[in-house]
Structure formats: C-alpha cells, structure tokens
Design the sequence.
C-alpha cells in the first residue's frame, strides 16, 4: 500500500503549525507536507522535523501580494515577483530539507492564456534550474474550476504537456485526486497514462474534501492501482477533517488494508 504523508495545512489545524509536526508523528506519519509555513522560523521547523524524524516533502511558493493573486508562475509581467517568491521558497525549503516546491500558476483571464502558457513554461524552466541546484523538485498541480475559478492549470493533460515542453527532469506533476475528479474524473486511467510524470499524489473525499472514506471516489481502488503501477512516491492526505484529526484517521487502516 502507498506511504501516506500528512498535509499540515489542513490536518491538526486546531493547534499552532509547529505543534502539528509532533501531532503527525504521534499518529504514525513518517512524512509531512505544508502549504505556507513561512511565518514559522525555518530553523524552528527544521528542529521540530528532526526531533520527530519526519521527512518534509514539500511546500507551496508564496502566492503573491496583489489582490486576487493565487500564484505567479503563469502571470506575464510578474516575472520579478515570481523570482522573488521562488527565492523565498527555496531558502525556506532548503533549510527545512524539503524535497519539492509547488509552483502555483495563478489566476489568468481567458484572453491571456496563450501568453500565460509561454510565461509559465519559461518560469518553470528557471525555477527547475534553481531548484535542481538545491536537489529539489518543482511540482505543478491542476486545480478544479469550482474551488479556484480562473486558475490557469485545470487539466492533467494540459499539465503533462507543459512538463514535456519545459524539458526539465525535475519538473513533475502533482496529481490531486480531489481536483482531478471534480474537473475530469477517470482517475485510474489518468494515473496509468501519466505515471511517468507524477511526482506526488494527494487525496480527499469528493465533493466534501473531508476524509477519503466518504464520497464518490473509491480510494481503495486508487491505492490498488498505484500499487499495480509500481508508484514509489508518497500519497498526501490533503483533506479537511470532519472533526478532530485524530478521530478521523481510521481510513488509514480500512482503505489501505493496514
């Protein structure tokens, strides 16, 4: 069965972020991932991770400071802002020994999509070269149009084409089953088709985004598929718990056969 990581942006959110590290370890997680932990001093986060022997998988780049910003990588004219945000993410990520940085594409109007794609590819190439020097991977993630209207990257095939065009080995696809199911569905076929480009998988119930033991996605079958494909990465538990995180972790054994 897959190895599961705890997304500390959503899980254990009833306590300060630094304390979520210990909570994840106490529940048996061996790896964690984060959204935007930048308000926590990086050396404090690194000490907490080391104290609990946890692997830090990745974190999001800052989204930008202008109204409506949700990522910068595909925004023409904002290249300097993107580079500054990447520097911040790489500095923090290197200190906490993260393995990946998620480059958020941003909100783009339909009329700007052609220019946005060119900008996105160029920024990803620059980011991948910088991240590669630090031994890190760059992730890009399609997001659904319901939760994030206007987000540039919406489809798995679009993301796969961009990864191919960027031509860097350390640019990978983050396959979030929640987002992909809402926008496209056909999860197991898309996992099989794009496995060679997938750097990370995330899960949550659809449509609630709660624990993955409810809703329309059969995660037991998703996990079997990942096993049959020989997927060696982690599966991130990026869901919003129905209540206290610890009370909802029964899915780890019921869905994975543990």
Sequence:
């Amino acid at each position: 069965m897959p190895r599961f990581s705890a997304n500390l942006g959503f899980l254990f959110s009833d306590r300060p972020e630094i304390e979520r590290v210990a909570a994840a370890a106490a529940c048996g997680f061996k790896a964690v991932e984060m959204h935007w932990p930048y308000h926590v001093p990086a050396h404090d986060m690194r000490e907490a991770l080391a104290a609990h022997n946890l692997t830090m998988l990745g974190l999001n780049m800052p989204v930008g400071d202008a109204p409506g910003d949700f990522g910068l990588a595909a925004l023409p004219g904002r290249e300097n802002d993107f580079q500054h945000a990447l520097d911040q993410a790489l500095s923090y990520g290197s200190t906490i020994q993260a393995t990946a940085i998620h480059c958020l594409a941003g909100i783009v109007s339909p009329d700007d999509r052609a220019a946005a794609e060119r900008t996105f590819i160029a920024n990803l190439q620059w980011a991948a070269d910088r991240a590669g020097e630090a031994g890190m991977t760059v992730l890009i993630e399609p997001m659904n149009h319901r939760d994030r209207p206007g987000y540039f990257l919406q489809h798995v095939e679009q993301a796969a084409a961009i990864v191919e065009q960027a031509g860097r080995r350390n640019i990978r696809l983050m396959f979030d089953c929640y987002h992909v199911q809402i926008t496209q569905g056909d999860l197991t076929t898309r996992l099989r088709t794009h496995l060679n480009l997938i750097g990370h998988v995330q899960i949550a119930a659809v449509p609630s985004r709660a624990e993955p033991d409810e809703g329309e996605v059969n995660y037991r079958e998703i996990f079997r598929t990942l096993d049959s494909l020989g997927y060696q990465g982690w599966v991130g538990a990026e869901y919003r718990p129905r209540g206290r995180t610890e009370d909802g972790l029964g899915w780890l054994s019921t869905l994975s056969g543990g």
